[in-house]
Amino acid sequence: MIRTKKNTREEDPCGGNPQRNAYFFCRFDGAVTLRQESLSKTMRPRRVSERLVFVLPLVWVLVGIFAKGATTPPAPALGQFSRIQATSLDGAHMNLPADFSGQLNLVVISFAREQQQEVDSWIPAARKIEAAHSQFRFYELPTMSRENLLYRWWFDEALRSNTTDKDLRSRILTAYVNKHTFKKSLKIENEKRVVAILVDPKGHVYWRADGSYSDPDLSALLSVLAAHGE
Question: What is the phi-psi region of residue 126: left when phi exceeds 0, alpha when psi lies from -120 to 50, beta otherwise?
Fold first, then answer.
């Protein structure tokens, strides 16, 4: 009697089903088991070096885009600082905006002597900003209509006598201009409040606030400076 050798190979609990998914359930001896098949070569992840070939160029493109957009552009809605002449209280004649000494300059524009308290409210914050930002400067710009020389002398002397701080004297610039044209260029609708602007020597305006200093206005100003790397 010829004995046949018993096949000791266990039957595939999943019926020898060919690869379908990386994972599938199969039933064997009344129990549900989880079987994981090895991934085929076509499904294996690419090497790190192969991935970098495609990823690195994309990274450099994105870096370039964000670097170009880092600087806040001028705001056309805030107007343009027109060319005017002014004189500081220490006697220096200036052509503005070209003679503003900062890369970015806080200029507080006033239209009447009664607005001096609003102007003064900006000075403490402006000094702190200038101490922290090397390319930032601040100025006061009392703006009056073109008057006769006697009135100009009287107004300048009155300001000078009330300003004992020598540093501040160099920052207070009196301007006698065509107020209608000047206000129109900066889109200033009225003279009821002072106007603070952030301007560069080309006359581009990047930020504006009306009236006295406020914390929200300061936060907005600092954000613009930060965008310019200041």
Answer: alpha
Q: For the domain 76-227, what is the CATH code?
A: 3.40.30.10
Spatial CA neighbour of 71 closest among 96, 103, 100 = 103
Tokens found for residue 153: 């002398």
Q: Are 36 and 23 in contact (CB under 8 A)?
A: yes
* Domain ranges (residues) in the chain: 23-68, 76-227
Q: Which of 97-106, 153-162, 205-214 has the lowest mean pLDDT?
A: 153-162
Query: In whole angstroms, what is the distance from residue 62 CA to residue 92 CA?
Result: 47
Q: What percent of the chain has pLDDT over 90?
A: 54
The encoded tokens of residue 117 equal 């308290």
User: Which residue type sits at 134?
Assistant: S
108 with 212: CB under 8 angstroms? no
Q: Indicate yes or no: pTM above 0.70.
A: no
What sign has the CA pseudo-torsion 88, 90, 92, 98? negative
